[in-house]
User: What shape does this take?
Amino acid sequence: MKSVAGSPDSAHLRGATPSCKGIWIPVFHKWYQSGSEGIEAVSQQMTNPTFEQTTARSRELYARALHVLPAGVSYKNRFLEPYPFYVESAHGSKVVDLEGNQYTDYWCTHLSMILGHSHPKVRKALERQLKKGWNFGLVHELEVRHAELIKHLVPSAEMIRFSNSGTEANMYAVRLARTFTKRSLIGKFQGGWHGGYDALHCAIKPPFELLPSGGLTRGALKDTLVLPYNDLRGVRRIIGKKKLACVVVEPVLAAGGMIPAERGFLEGLRELCDETGALLVFDEVITGFRLGLGGGQAHFHVQPDLTVFGKIIGGGLPIGAIAGRQDIMERMDHTKYSGDKYCFQGGTGAANILTLVAGEATIQTLRDEPVYDKIDRLGETARTRLQEIFDRSSISARVTGIDSLFAIHFTKKKQVRDIKQFGEEHKRQSKRIFTFLLNNGIVMLVPEHLHAAISYSHSEDEIDALISLVEEYVKAQAL
Ligand code: PMP
Assistant: This one.
């Protein structure tokens, strides 16, 4: 086994040098090769006898997975302690593992299955399409129709380009903003998660100076300014007179704790961008079609120059999209622009028909059925009642969220405005509740941060069951 010498955090802080205000540039990455997140870490994971009793096949599969998939998974968020359960099927609000154990799923495919799993309308549309082929690599009618539908529902999306993931779409949005403005600097927020693209892959969680991955070069990050969320004065202080290509912001910090922008924050960013010539980019990978058909921009009444979409617009199949003002988007038009005035975007899976079929059927259902009425109401119930439970207990916690999204933070603060407060106590409590819920057939993710999305398939009874279990957990703590 490789040994982990010293604390990675302190090693990093020792090797960091401050660059421009708001961003630290790493000098040494050595501890990343020390295996601190490698297989040996897995062997030290906690046990969970209740879970292990019913998931023997998952344990066997995970033992095999460890030999072929780093950490045994394809995304670290999917790793559960002591090992993940393997999903065999998913319908409605439930996922079912290899043993037939059912879990009520509040993870909803990284928050993208807003209708629930295998929704009949989406499935029928996919089945019809499968008979005709699934990725042509040539243009087809649906990419026009899907773009028209999104444009109709999200007025700032004058033109659209489809890609394969939110990460990819963010990468292209930044490239497009840089092409259009001929500037290099970009702004992103503490706690903002935009996927794995190098220039945005920093300051995801505290301590913000610590990079979340190796391989992020000085070059990739030197033009990134890290800004404080919900703190307009702080943002203005850091940006000063600097000329930014764009400011990338989530209308709700999603992976960063389901923390909505406060009143005036997005409006202030809009004004700041207008004053300085920077483009305002909303990363609506989570909020798009989640906070209603118009997404975060309609909810908060602020119009961005560019929007990044993902998840729901592909019905839970892999997707991303860049959308926005025509004059900006046209820089992706190779028939109009060339050289450094042109911005490349594209790829093998871009606008693949299977994803767009699922996306179209999903958005049509969101438009035609009272989906938001139901999921937002259930979300409100969950947030209010969970907060009441914690308020009556000795556990200090705040329930954040908006509409059908919520998260639980273990903190003594009365208000959660950013994720600076995530500490060891928060992680410890989150993991304990996560495990308790998992053992009672409920899955939320990720274990260290209790995040949840409600889908159209969730029932009031399921929300009640979740709330009762949390209450039971909290009461047991007091004994
Ligand atoms: N932006 C936001 C706001 C996200 O939450 C995510 C993923 N959860 C991404 C971008 C990255 O999307 P993907 O995982 O499809 O690359």
Summary: Residues 110, 165-167, 170, 193-195, 250, 254-255, 283, 285-286, 310, 320 surround 4'-deoxy-4'-aminopyridoxal-5'-phosphate (CB under 6 Å). The chain has a mean pLDDT of 91.
